[in-house]
Protein: TraB domain containing
Organism: Coturnix japonica
Amino acid sequence: MQEEQQPEAAADPMSSSDVPEDGPKETSSVSQSISDADAFKILLEMKMKKRQKKPALPSTVTELDTEDGSKVYVVGTAHFSDSSKKDVVKTIQEVQPDVVVVELCQYRVSMLKMDEKTLLKEAKEINLEKLQQAIKQNGVMSGLMQMLLLKVSAHITEQLGMAPGGEFREAFKEASKVPFCKFHLGDRPIPVTFKRAIAALSFWQKVKLAWGLCFLSDPISKDDVEKCKQKDLLEQMMAEMIGEFPDLHRTIVSERDIYLTYMLKQAAKQIELPRASETEPRKYIPAVVVGVVGMGHVPGIEKNWNSDLNIQEIMSVPPPSASSKIFKFVIKATVFGLMGYGCYRIGQRTVQFILSMPAAQSYLQKLTEIRSQH
């Protein structure tokens, strides 16, 4: 995948806090004469001084190496954990990365700039408008699947009182403080994942899965909250639900492991240093990358790290199967049937209400007397 195919969120490459305030005053008068290459070298030196040779990393971090000497630090997180947010901040501050890659796609990038209170409200509110928007973006089947999975997330949000994605927002903030640090979205687009997941299920598997998600209401105990600090509660619940559907696990988990691994390896390519002139030879240095992903994806990333990966196959969307068409028809028929029945019941009650009014009864009695006279 080419560099331009890696979606990036707009993170400031350098924060004003990185510029020392006690530097010599006279340098400001000659700063304009410094070339871009020299300015880059100065800032790079500042960054390298902050970068720890032997960083003190949290236990949730897995270190991976590339053939050309680049290093990738994968932070395994729980999406509803404060400790995971601290792990992300500490890792980025210790290693001063060149690239930060997060388990998000362009369809979920909005959560990076939303505050916790707004996200908490959004996560709890799943209404008809959101359902219509999901169906419009992803189609009927994928839209319904997306809303059902959001219901799982909303259930956890309501039980814990904590909005998901806090570790990604912390990663975005910290990346903006590191000079020349790029911010990449490393997850496969949601519509592709859901469409491939739907295509992998039979008609009855879709019905069974939808039924289980619709009636998810088990309470989350304080013990579960504590476990959440060691394991991703959302992914654990999802794993329990999709465990009996191997094909669903493959599309939602295993394929995304491959995609995330591929994006991390792309981000870990060596960095070309700026040249003072076209005649100067090109120089490259190994990259340092921090990946922020759910704990459930870390084993898959380790497994795929030394493999030659091709993501073209897992990016294709198969045509809808016969069972998908049947399920889609059943859903539409059910919706329209319920709407029709609702209109019928409302109309029936309206007629009964009008007929029960004294004025209407008097009018009907007079009409009956006129007919009897004729």
